[in-house]
Design brief:
Layout: H1 2-11, H2 23-34, H3 38-50, H4 56-68, H5 71-84, H6 89-102, H7 105-118, H8 124-135, H9 139-153, H10 159-168, H11 172-185, H12 190-197, H13 205-212, H14 219-231, H15 235-242, H16 251-265, H17 268-281, H18 285-297, H19 301-312, H20 317-334, H21 338-348, H22 354-370, H23 374-381, H24 390-399, H25 403-409, H26 418-429, H27 436-446, H28 450-463, H29 468-481, H30 485-498, H31 503-518, H32 522-535, H33 542-556
Helix pairs in contact: 1-3, 1-5, 2-3, 2-4, 3-4, 4-5, 5-6, 6-7, 6-8, 8-9, 8-10, 9-10, 10-11, 11-13, 12-14, 14-15, 14-16, 15-17, 16-17, 17-18, 18-19, 18-20, 19-20, 20-21, 20-22, 21-22, 22-23, 23-24, 24-25, 27-28, 28-29, 29-30, 29-31, 30-31, 31-32, 31-33, 32-33
Amino acid sequence: MLFALAAAALAFGPMSARAQAQPNVINRALEVEQAGRWRDALAAWRSVIEAGDLVQGPLGLERVFAQLGQEDSLRVVVDSLLVAHPASRVLRAIQLRTLRSLGSDREEMAAFEAWVAAAPNDVAPYKEYAGQLLSDLRTSLADSVLRMGINALGGNGFKLELAQIQIARGQWGAGAATWRELIRSEQYLHQAAFYSLGNAPASSRDSIRTALAQEPATAGARKVHGRLELDWGNPREGWRVLSTLTVGDSALDAWSEFAGEAERQGAWIPARDALLRIAEAAPQVSILLRAAEAASTGGEPQSALSILANARAYATTAMIARQILPLEVRALTLLGKAADAEALVAREAGRADEATRRGFAKQIAWGWVRAGEVEKARRALAGASADDDEEVSGWIALFEGDFVRARAGLRRPADATPDVVTAMAMLGRTKADSGRAAGEAFLALARGDSAAAAKQFELAADELTDATPLLLAFAARIWSQRKADAAAIGLWERVVQYYPLSPEAAESDLEWARTLRRKGDVTGATTRLEHLILSYPQSALVPQARRELEIIRSGIA
C-alpha cells in the first residue's frame, strides 16, 4: 500500500517545464537504486520525472517496482503519465511490458491498439509489441502483429523483425532472403544476420545458401555466407565466397575476421589464403608470417617457403633472424629437406644464441626423421639438449621397433599429423614392447615408400596379434591410395570376416563399398553398405553409409 500511495503521488506531482533532468539528479537516483534502497529509489526516480525526464525516470521506476514485485503500482504511474503523453514510445513500451508480466492478454492487446491509435503513422507500436512477443516465444501472435504493421505502413520498416520471426518459425530460407534485403542497405547488420542464421539445422542450410547467393550478389550477403560456411565446417567454401569481395567492399575487415576464426578452428589453408589477400592489399610482415605458419601447419610447407621469400623483402635484418629463419627451417624440415635446412642455418644463424641453436638442431633432426634418415637424425640431436629431443628420439625408437621408448617419447606430440595419429593408435592398441615389422613400416612411410609400408603393416598384423585389424586397416588404406583396389579389398574382407567386433570392421565395410561403387559395382556396394547399417547400428559411420546408399539409389533411379 505504501508503494501504491507513493506511485499515486508521483503520478499527479507537478511536472517541470525542463525537457530533461539534470545529470546529478539521475546520478543520485542510480546510486540509491544500486545500493538497494528501494523506497528512496522510488522517490529519487520521481524527482527525475518531475525534472522533465520521461525516459530515464520511467525506466528507473520500472526496474525498482520489478525488484519490489509491485508491477500494479507501476501500471498506475504509467497510465497516469500517458494521459499527458499518449505518443511516448518509452511509456507505451513500459505499459506493454507491465501488462505482459501481469498476464493480462486482453489488456495487453488493448494497450497496443491504443498506442497505434495515438501514433497511427509510427512503426514503433508494431515493432515493440512484436519484439516482446518474440521474446516470449509467442511467434504466431508476433507474426500477426507484424503483418498488421506491414499492411498499415508498408514493409520497409519491419524487415529486421520479419527476419527474426521467420527464423523463429523455422522458415530459414525466407528469413535469409529477408536478411539479405535488409543488409543491402544496412550493411552494419551483417553480424546480426550471421548470428541469427548460424544455428540453422543442416537440413535447412541449402535454402539459406540459395537465398544469400541470389543475384545481384551483395557484399553484405557474401560476408554472412562466407562466415556461415566456416562455422558450418566448410572453410574452403567460406573462403571461396569471401574471396569474391574487393577492397572497395570493406573486405579487409571481413578477411581478417575470417582468417582469425579459421586459425582458431584449425582451418589452416583457408586461413593462409585469407591472410595472403590481406597482404596483397596492405603488405605487412606480421601478416605474411601468419600466412606462412598457417601454410606449414596446414601441410603445405612449399607454399610457406614462397611466402617467407616474399616476407624477406619487407623485413628488417633482425626480423629475418628472429622470425623468418625459424619458419624457413621448419618448412624445409617438413619437406624432408634437412640438408637444405642445415645449410641455411650454417649460412644465416652464425650469431644465434645457444637456445636458438638447440632449437634449430631439434628441427633439423625432425627433418632427418621425416626423411627416414635415422643416423643423420641422431647426429643432429647432438646439438640439442636432452629435454629437446624426447619426441624425435621417440620416432627413432619407433623406426627401430622399440615400443617402450617410442611410447615415452611420443606421449605429448607437438603436432597431431596423420603419421602421429597412426603411430599413437598402434602404440595404444598393442601391449607389445617391440615390433620390427611395424617399425619398418613407419620407416618406409617416412621415406615415401608406401608400397613397402603396406607390405610391412601386413607382416606386422601377424606379429602383433592384439592390433591385427588396425594394422590390416592401415595397409588397406595405403593400397587404396595407390589404386591397388584388389589388395585393399582383400584386407577389408579379412577384417570384416575375421574381426567383426573390432572398430575397424565398420570402417572396412564403408571403404570397401566406396571402392566397389567407384569401380561401377553398384550391387556389391549396396550389399556392403546394407551390411554395415545392419551389423553395426551403433557405429558413427552409419549416417555416412546411409548417405552413400541414398546416392547409389538416386543414381539407379
